[in-house]
């Protein structure tokens, strides 16, 4: 008979993974340190893998432990969310969520699904550049950050890869653009660099026509038929059309959408939103 994973085992594992210490984990769980050690050993026996590297000075997750942690968090989150849904009090609280302009096109689906499961949770949403969002996370001013550049930071996980395309207003006469007027993000954007490099390599002349730090600022110029821009394919609207090799536009690289979570112990509402983001971006891929 196949063994089941109990919630108690998962909570003990999670406490040790977060505190990196068996004694501190026992204090958090209000039990003896020996009990936590036994729970972890039992979990390792059920899984058949070593979850922690133990020494006198440090307790560190193994590679298998890091992989299992994501599953454990999901199971604990689902357990708590189920109890909240069928209890007298629905899940409440506040989640501070920072997202970039480029990733904003995914928010309607994310927020719709999150509101269905957590209607009473307050969401504080910021629109920031990738490095600003990650700075907010590090400063404790955000709980989650959905970004398109790692900016040298570790700890994020790729939740989606998205095609980047050239786009222009449907009525724009692109063949008359010479040099090509561009509406693109300002310096510091890695996709801007890739786009300009691809144009230079293809020998197409271009000029900076509209420069903005916000997608809305660029969209105004593009919608008026005054410039060409680059967008993730999911951000295309009916007013825009894609430009490709037939019009002399080189291929663009894919972008990675990364999710970062605050390093401190996450509240249930934060974990629920993080899971909703992952599931939504995975489920909706290719349907835009």
Helix and strand layout, with pairings?
Elements: H1 7-19, H2 22-29, H3 33-47, E1 52-54, E2 59-61, H4 63-86, E3 92-99, H5 107-117, E4 120-127, H6 130-138, E5 144-147, E6 157-169, E7 180-185, H7 190-202, E8 206-212, H8 215-223, E9 229-232, E10 240-243, E11 254-261, H9 268-283
Parallel strand pairs: 3-4, 3-5, 7-8
Antiparallel strand pairs: 1-2, 5-11, 6-9, 6-10, 6-11
Shape verdict: elongated
Number of helices: 9
Sheet bearing the most strands, described? 7 strands, mixed
Mean pLDDT: 85
The H-and-E topology, N to C, reads as HHHEEHEHEHEEEHEHEEEH
- Report the radius of gyration as a whole number of Å: 23 Å
What is the SS-derived class?
A: alpha/beta
Structure write-up:
Helix content is 41%, strand content 24%. By secondary structure, the chain is an alpha/beta fold. The relative contact order is 0.14. The mean pLDDT is 85.
Quick gist of this model?
The chain is of the alpha/beta class and 288 residues long.
Spell out the key features of this protein.
two-stranded antiparallel sheet, elongated, single chain, seven-stranded mixed beta sheet
